[in-house]
Amino acid sequence: MKTLKQPKKGDYSNFFSTYLNKVSGEAYEKYILDQIDLLKELFNSKSDTWAETAYAEGKWTSKEVLGHILDTERIMAFRALCIARGEKSSLPGFDQDPYVLNARFGHVPVELLLKDFEIQRLSLISMLNILPPESLDMEGFANGNPITPRALLWIIPGHFEHHFNIFTEKY
């Protein structure tokens, strides 16, 4: 199993503390793989209509939350790759609401979203395996804030934990 030390303060903006405080240790690959199973078990344990339902008016459906997780992970992985490759330009931020609206996740079968999640996670592990270790601590900028690839990679399972908790508490 691939290990990855946690980022240190200063490797990311305070905004990401919410997500990074949800993960600990160095067992990165285990986090990534275990979360695939957790997500599949959750969705498979629910009725067909559960994925189509929001917990309150104006909130996303479970499928839309899953799609948001996928989009966010792709963006974080892209940022990590860019910075690890020496990108000096500040990478753009993104507004999650138009992304979810324009993605039309409600029209995508749950099975495809779950498969996409699994493939995305395996791609993360593959990317981590080929990144030079010293590149993980290169500093870059995203949305005008300093950040490292190490922090971006750890934000991914922390962001998942954040939304998984919402799934289990509110949906």
TrEMBL record:
Residue stretches making up the DinB-like domain: 37-165
Gene3D superfamilies of this UniProt entry? dinb family like domain
Q: Which Pfam families match?
A: DinB_2 (PF12867)
Xref: InterPro entries: DinB-like, DinB/YfiT-like
Could you name the domain of life of the organism this protein comes from?
A: Bacteria
UniProt name for this protein: DinB-like domain-containing protein
